[in-house]
Write a structure and sequence with these properties.
By secondary structure, the chain is of the alpha+beta class. It is built from 14 helices and 30 strands. About 45% of the residues are buried. Pfam families: Alpha-amylase, Alpha-amylase_N, Malt_amylase_C.
Length: about 575
């Protein structure tokens, strides 16, 4: 066996408490190298009486490695452990410091999980695992109160630009909650709603005031209450990495320079503040002069922003925060942020905007989840652009699952497009078959799916500003068949726990392949998803138990013959079947 590829370390995604009684252990090995793996585990103070070999299962794989996993429920919430690796008749024992051909005589040289301290257990809010989110860009969703319109408001549905306004507001969202209820939505993520100068509101002017173009705190309370009555949770956008140029403390620095009492609220390299060759002499978001970076290490800034986070949760009953540019803010700020938010609402969902691998933020002391853009990239590369084959896609998904503790993957925010990206239908060249396949995977995968407003009715659009078009409310211009597809997916997902938290096993994902088959299983709840990404029909032969199966889209019954289901799918076809108990 290739021992150089074998890896484990305590903590992070390799050894962690899943809950207050259960420890998960993972081990990495070269792909296809090991035939069996066991955890050799027991209590460090009663080793001889408690030691046991726990079989590990192949949890997931990527292009180079297999990841093995097991769980242990130790009687005294602590664990001493090593591993037994097998490849055929070859047996190797792994300790914290080396590999041995003989069983270690001294258990003190093994790994250790010292104790499950309840306060250290990473416990994201359970409701998120069952949620289906809908992202709303308030300025472009619906105009419910024309009296709030900005000057020079454009006719609804005309061409968006980075600067123009259409009058979308909070009342408009209230007026169209029936649309979300009909669809099956249980969570809304709003891009910023606080006072700002732009249409996107990421240049905050006043963190304690609802933007007057959107309404006021009374309207916001009305909206949140109306959502809660329908079983819809509400997530607002917190822009704490930077403020806007019109934020009062920054205005004071602009006016008073080094004499401003707020000069240390920002990262100023020299005075007076100015922009030279398009680069400001103060830190900002992406060199944008209108968005000066806040100094979150400054005690006054920190206190101000943490008060903002707590205020809106208590004032309007907010269910969580999405955190803009989260990876550019210091970790210590986010640790204190979590304490403040969870004290105000223990069930609040804390979602960070990070576009890459995010393990340092998902250890239980900062975020509950991140926006899962590596998932987004893999789905688009396979189902839409075709730059990945089935095997490479399965490997990409396996790598993503291996990166985080299970409880983080269960609440990952899985999106396919947003206000920051081209719309999925545009990426697919207008091909709704590709959009459906990508969305089917999104809704049958672990984590909470999010629909970008209008995707369910066939809206398209290039990157900003094209992806920020006005929502289409004319039924004659909506794709109601597509809406029905989304609604059916939400219904299927909600009816089957396996699709939300069940184990994932790829059944078919071949090199150069365009057929994808995978199983989601949780106890007796067993679901198999089949998808054909090819422009011609293809037949699947899937090994299954000799039992009856039901097509969840059509209600048709199927039965395996000699342990195999043979199912022919048309070009870009799909099916979802469940085992009938």
């Amino acid at each position: 066996m290739l021992l150089e590829a074998v890896y484990h370390r305590p903590r992070l995604n390799w050894s962690y408490a899943y809950d207050r009684q259960t420890i998960h252990l993972r081990l990495r090995a070269k792909k296809g190298d090991l035939t069996e793996v066991f955890a050799w585990a027991g209590d460090k103070y009663a080793w001889d009486a408690t030691k046991e070999l726990i079989p590990m299962k192949l949890f997931t794989s990527d292009a180079m490695f297999d990841y093995w996993e097991c769980e242990s429920v130790p009687l005294y919430r602590r664990l001493k452990y090593g591993f037994l690796l097998q490849k055929g008749h070859e047996r190797i024992w792994m300790t914290e410091s080396d590999f041995q051909t003989e069983r270690p005589a001294n258990p003190n040289r093994l790994f250790e999980f010292p104790y499950i301290n309840p306060v250290d257990v990473f416990a994201p809010p359970a409701w998120v695992k069952d949620a289906v989110f809908y992202q709303i860009f308030p300025e472009r969703f619906a105009n419910g109160d024309p009296s709030l319109n900005p000057e020079n408001v454009q006719p609804w549905g005309s061409t968006p630009t980075p600067e123009n306004f259409f009058g979308g507001d909070l009342q408009g969202v209230i007026d169209h909650l029936d649309h979300l209820t009909e669809l099956g939505i249980t969570g809304i993520y709003f891009t910023p709603i606080f006072a700002a100068t732009t249409n996107h509101k990421y240049d905050t002017e006043d963190y304690m005031k609802v933007d007057p173009h959107f309404g006021d705190v009374k309207t916001l309370k009305k909206l949140v209450d109306a959502c809660h009555e329908r079983g819809i949770r509400v997530l607002l956008d917190a822009v704490f990495n930077h403020s806007g140029r019109t934020f009062a403390p920054f205005v004071d620095v602009l006016e008073n320079g080094e004499n401003s009492r707020y000069k240390d609220w920002f990262h100023v390299r020299e005075f007076p503040l100015q922009v030279v060759d398009n680069i400001p002499n103060y830190d900002s978001f992406a060199f944008e002069p209108l968005m000066p970076k806040l100094n979150t290490e400054n005690p006054e800034v920190k206190e101000y922003l943490l008060n903002v986070a707590e205020y809106w949760i208590r004032e309007v009953g907010l269910d969580g925060w999405r955190l803009d540019v989260a990876n550019e803010v210091d970790h210590e700020f986010w640790r204190d942020f979590r304490k403040v938010v969870k004290r105000a609402n223990p069930e609040a969902y804390i979602l960070g905007e990070i576009w890459h691998e995010s393990a340092p933020w998902l250890e239980g002391d900062k975020f509950d989840a991140v926006m899962n853009y590596p998932f987004t990239d893999a789905v688009i590369d396979f189902f839409v652009s075709g730059t990945l084959d089935a095997e490479a896609f399965a490997n990409a998904i396996g790598k993503q699952l291996s990166r985080y503790p299970l409880q983080a993957s269960e609440v990952a925010f899985n999106l396919l497009d947003s206000h920051d990206t081209p719309r999925l239908l545009t990426l697919a060249g207008g091909d709704k078959n590709k959009l459906k396949l990508a969305t089917l995977f999104q809704f049958t995968f672990m984590g909470t799916p999010c629909i970008y407003y209008g995707a369910e009715i066939g809206m398209d659009g290039e990157g900003d500003p094209g992806c920020r078009k006005c929502m289409e409310w004319d039924p004659e211009k909506q794709d109601r068949e597509l809406f029905g597809f989304f609604r059916k997916l939400i219904e299927i997902r909600g009816s089957h726990p396996a699709l939300r938290t069940g184990a994932l096993t790829f059944l078919e994902a071949a090199p150069q392949g365009s057929k994808l088959a995978y199983e989601r299983s949780l106890g007796d709840d067993i679901i198999i998803v089949l998808m054909n990404t090819e422009g011609t029909g293809q037949t699947f032969h899937i090994g299954v138990e000799e039992r009856q199966w039901e097509n969840l889209f059509t209600g048709e019954s199927l039965r395996a013959e000699r342990g195999k289901l043979s199912i022919k799918l048309p070009a870009y076809g799909y099916t979802v079947i469940k085992a009938v108990v």
